[in-house]
Amino acid sequence: MFSAIARVFRTPDLRRKIWFTIGIITIYRIGAFIPAPGVDYGAVQQCLALGTTEGGLYSFVNMFSGGAMLQVSVFALGIMPYITAAIIVQLLRVVIPRFENLQREGPQGQAKLTQYTRYLTLGLATLNATTLVTMARSGALLQCDIPIIPDESLWTILLMILVMTCGVALIMWLGEQITERGVGNGMSILIFVSIAAGFPAAMGEIWTTQGWRTFAAVMVVGLFTIAAVVFVEQSQRRVPVQYAKRQIGRRTVGGTSTYIPIKVNMAGVIPVIFSSSVLMLPQVISQFNQPAPGEEPNQFIQWVQTYFQSGAHPVYMITFFLLTIFFTYFYVTITFNPNEVAENMRKFGGFIPGVRAGRPTENYLAYVISRITFPGSLYLGAVALIPLIAFVWIGASQNFPFGGTSILIMVGVGLTTVKQINAQMEQRNYEGLLR
To answer: In the CATH scheme, what is the code of domain 1-197?
Structure first.
């Protein structure tokens, strides 16, 4: 392993890209601890020391910001507005034909979609910053009575919203710089860093509060989880495709055999994010409908507090599992179009052995996708339940370090980045990082 790392740093161009990526990551992590203007940093630290936000409603979003959200820093919104905007633009391809046409236009269309994603990101960032500042003023964010914004004048509030929105724009720019001049996909790398930044504190808390036996058990479960995620993420169903020979001028083209790789988990981590967001809605609604002093709460609030306030309740777990399965099928149906794949194969003279071209090929691909998505959805649901089960088992917080969302993202980004480094080394040294 060490010899492979040494080979990476002996390649000048690759070494320069890695150091550039590390520099951008350093800037990103420094920005996560710079308080926004108007925020009392000492008061924020006092509220965090009280532990009132542990496992709270916003811990999931805080994980994607690398802890910057609860620090109320200039990067408090993190990468979440961009993730949300990218998902919305991708889903709108099904609704808006213009977006679907841009997707088919190649690099120029992709550049246009990227521009739309940036505009939508800034709009969502402004909305999220306004919500975040409002919660910080009311004390709902840190669930603490200590005021963290001493000066609540209109100028201070507008300045905080502007700075947090600009922080999202800067994060987008940093991610694009990594993609263009560094290693890996910039946005994915920043998400990876945000999640990994919370691991030391979470593991240290388990060691301190639960003892070394629980710590060792968590490490063993974490290693097995990572191994299982790597195995499933690399698993795929290969549908063979044969291309007939064609005569173009004096050249004979085609006659080759290839395959369509259909991953077991084609949806990635998106279904887990969707499910978590949907289950957050009842909690948010119940918070904004609290009864007045002396007034009895209505039945809806009591029902939400009983079944959905804590992830440890069996009803919450079952609902989370079923929603993950539903959103897995939903997202795969949107992102993979058997009709389009079958049509492209027909245009270039490709066919699946034993299956006629056209509608039979489309039906066959739909059948394969449906069958392969079922175990993938069960796998996603099982991995997503790991932090909730840990919450019951060891009393850990809902942002358990080896939780489903965090492990899925980290393993996926890690595998993609290593493959990219391996490909660049093979181009230069004829010997890759992986053997």
So the answer is: 1.10.3370.10
pLDDT of residue 252: 62
40 pLDDT higher than 60: yes
Give the SS3 label for residue 63: helix
Task: Give the global pTM.
Answer: 0.80
Helix (H, G, I), strand (E, B) or coil at 361: helix
Locate 118 and state its tokens: 């940036």
3-state helix, strand, coil in the chain (%, to 5): 70, 5, 25
Residue listed under structure tokens 């993202």: 409
Specify the pLDDT at position 122: 92
Round to whole Å and give the CA distance between 334 and 324.
15
Dist CA 90 CA 168 (whole Å): 20
For residue 65, the Cα-to-chain-centroid distance in whole angstroms is 11
**74: nearest Cα among 162, 175, 197, 187:** 162
Phi-psi region of 298 (alpha: psi -120 to 50; beta: other; left: phi over 0): beta
For 198-402, CATH gives 1.10.3370.10
SS3 of 159-216: the string is: HHHHHHHHHHHHHHHHHHHHHHHCCCCHHHHHHHHHHHCCHHHHHHHHHHHHCHHHHH
Pull the structure tokens for residue 351. 């066919």
By the 8 A CB rule, do 237 and 372 touch?
A: yes
